Amino acid sequence: MAMLRSLLLLFIVFSMGNAEVKKCPYGWTNSGVRCYKFFSQAVSWITAERKCQSLDANLASVHSKIEHDFLLSLLPSTTRCWFGLHDGEQEGEWLWTDGTPFDYTHWAPGQPDGLQIENCGEFNFQNNRWNDADCLTTLGYVCAKYL
To answer: Where does the signal peptide begin and end (predicted)?
Structure first.
């Protein structure tokens, strides 16, 4: 019986040793079940989303104050950047590029202001808030990918 327990214990240890531990790629930062990375290269919103997609990611979505503050910690202070928010399909109906629910907001006062050409989400606007901006504006961006 002791031999059987020892063999079972060895099997469990070796099985656990072979289990894949998912980690963020080099240069990405983990928070929860996602990895994030800020890119300082200034590009349009659609170019930013395409660059994220080329890395098996999307522009970052935000679902809580904790996640919002975490994203701020990735940016150089007062750096404005793109994240995955847009209302390009229907004016005023905000969506995340990763398809997750739009369940949290942190708009700057008076935003979104509903200008027809401002269909893309800008992060870290006036006092760390969100803004709707012209998608052709060039900014850095934050990508997020699931582990």
So the answer is: 1-19
Asked if residue 109 lies in contact with residue 127, where contact means CB atoms within 8 angstroms, the answer is no
Q: Encoding tokens for residue 38?
A: 């800020």
Distance between CA atoms of residues 110 and 50, nearest Å: 29
Pick the residue with more confidence: 3 or 73? 73
CA distance 139 to 116: 20
Q: Of 117, 61, 111, 57, give the one whose Cα is nearest residue 88.
A: 117
Q: Is the peptide bond before 25 cis (omega within 30 degrees of 0)?
A: no
CB contact set of 141 (below 8 Å; sequence gap of 6+): 38, 39, 43, 45, 48, 51, 52, 59, 81, 82, 83
What is the total residue count of the chain? 147
DSSP 8-state class, residue 74: H
* Tokens, residue 126: 């006036």
